[in-house]
Amino acid sequence: MTRTLTPDWQARLIAATAHKKVGEEGWYRTIAAAVEAAPSQVAVADALHTSQAQVSRWAAKGRQIAAVRGQKIDSPYEAAVRYSVGELTRDQIIEILSTWDYRRWDNRTAGEHDDLLNTVAGSFDELTAAHADGLLEDDTYDAIADALEERAAVRTA
Questions:
Q1: Does residue 82 contact residue 73 with C-beta atoms inside 8 Å?
Q2: Which of 7, 41, 90, 145 sits 20 to 30 Å CA-CA off 100?
Q3: Which of 5, 138, 25, 8 lies closest to 82 in space, CA to CA?
Q4: What is the pTM of this model?
Q5: Cα gap 34→28, rounded to integer Å
Q6: Which pairs count as long-range contacts for 81-88, CB under 8 Å and 24+ apart, including other chains?
Q7: For all residues of the chain together, what is the average pLDDT?
């Protein structure tokens, strides 16, 4: 399988942006959890050297993120980001991405002029992009690909 790798500087920017989003969401959820566990929002504010009003806003955002997202992973690329920041173990990422219901490539275009799309959301393209961007190591990517091939062989047998 041929892989086109993203230039190193670009891969670092892509990964850092993805890490920032995942980390930021986790931070807000952590604030919300701390507010529930702490004796008061003032105690959390003191620990963070900020105001109680700011803690209240951050906690509300954390509760909103938790309510909308929960532990849901929206895409293969997001799963790879969560793995790269340590939220998922190697075994977990292999299990998630080897059993993912990937969108078929025959749905690549929506119309006559969309045939130059580089990546189809929810397809194996995202897994390849995550690897090219440095979010998955070679051996992890290969383990996922091997597991997908084994799964496909079982289905066709």
A1: yes
A2: 7
A3: 25
A4: 0.60
A5: 10
A6: 81/15, 81/18, 81/19, 81/21, 81/22, 81/130, 81/135, 82/22, 83/135, 83/136, 83/140, 84/15, 84/18, 84/19, 84/134, 84/135, 84/136, 85/19, 85/22, 85/23, 87/22, 87/26
A7: 81
Dist. CA 63–CA 20, nearest whole Å: 19
All residues at 6 or more sequence positions from 63 whose CB lies less than 8 Å from its CB, including other chains:
32
Q: Which residue has the tokens 């929206």?
A: 74
Q: Read off the pLDDT of residues 103-157 as tens digits, 9 standing for 90 and up.
A: 776 545 555 555 555 667 778 888 888 898 889 999 999 999 999 998 888 777 6
Residue 34 token pair:
């701390």
What is the C-alpha separation between 30 and 127, in angstroms, rounded? Answer: 28
Amino acid at 102: Y
Both tokens of 152, joined, read: 């496909």
**pLDDT, tens digit (0-9, with 9 covering 90-100), for 5-59:** 566 777 777 777 777 877 788 888 889 889 999 999 999 999 999 999 999 999 9
**Which amino acid is it at 58?**
W
